Amino acid sequence: MFEGFASVGSEREGVTIRAWKGGAGTPVLLLHGYPQTHHMWHRVAPALAERHTVIVADLRGYGDSGKPAPVEDRSNYSKREMAADQHRLMASLGFDRYAVVGHDRGARVAHRLGLDQPEAVSRIAVLDIVPTLHMFDNVDRAMASSYFHWFFLSQRGGMPESLQRADPQTWLRSRFTGRHAGGEAIAEAAYAEYERCFLQPGAIEGSTADYQAAASIDLDHDRADRDRGRTLDMPLLALWGSAGYVGTNFDVVDVWREYADSVTGAAIESDHYLAEEAPGKVAARLLDFLAEEDLESVDADDGALG
């Protein structure tokens, strides 16, 4: 599904991050959502690789990346730690400055990566999210119904892990059921990869800890940034599914302008999994956004020569 991409990886504090690299040009890191792996980009990454060096990575706890046992406060699954993994990956590949595109959980990691490594992240694109803090600060019946898994997975004491292990295939399939707006279906080969990885030892525990961190330590980090007035200072593109919860319940661009200094955005005719349901439209928007960085680099070089 990633013809021409080579397997790469890095290790940080004993956690291995698996990724695949293809194309040539300015670098862009693609991060997946729940309960997926890097395979969610199989319809977008090849198009981006025609103009960019593309790195598609598995987050810790997902895919073929390491799945450390969660610590008590879930700090080893905080978005700060997950972002640090990805920054280490890009540095190990020789990239000291790069763009980041994230969907769902990967977009939350991208948000944190931009806050913690502003000198390295040139641009961010987030797919079908508003910031975690904003979501938790605006819980209502619609949010609790559409995102019930946030509250289920954030429970402690082993209950969500045990229930998932009892019938993991049904749980996995349920995350996609009803979240489709008539575009392309999720490829069976990609779904088979999601299932293979979800059934690996430690995957249920790791991905659940991701949500438990989001409801605890991630909020501490986000509130600290808000209290200090820290926002993203690089350009941010927000894309969302026109039929999904985010697109129908938030003014997405307006929300992001509370968290980032320069925001543009657009709806894509799809539901939540827009990179798989509408890959052509997503790729086109991303290529336009990333091209702006290339133009800025050319302008800067021209100015230096002048």
UniProtKB/TrEMBL annotation:
<dbReference type="GO" id="GO:0046464">
    <property type="term" value="P:acylglycerol catabolic process"/>
</dbReference>
<dbReference type="InterPro" id="IPR000073">
    <property type="entry name" value="AB_hydrolase_1"/>
</dbReference>
<dbReference type="InterPro" id="IPR000639">
    <property type="entry name" value="Epox_hydrolase-like"/>
</dbReference>
<dbReference type="GO" id="GO:0016020">
    <property type="term" value="C:membrane"/>
</dbReference>
<dbReference type="InterPro" id="IPR029058">
    <property type="entry name" value="AB_hydrolase_fold"/>
</dbReference>
<dbReference type="InterPro" id="IPR050266">
    <property type="entry name" value="AB_hydrolase_sf"/>
</dbReference>
<protein>
    <submittedName>
        <fullName>Haloacetate dehalogenase</fullName>
    </submittedName>
</protein>
<dbReference type="GO" id="GO:0047372">
    <property type="term" value="F:monoacylglycerol lipase activity"/>
</dbReference>
<feature type="domain" description="AB hydrolase-1">
    <location>
        <begin position="27"/>
        <end position="151"/>
    </location>
</feature>
<dbReference type="Pfam" id="PF00561">
    <property type="entry name" value="Abhydrolase_1"/>
</dbReference>
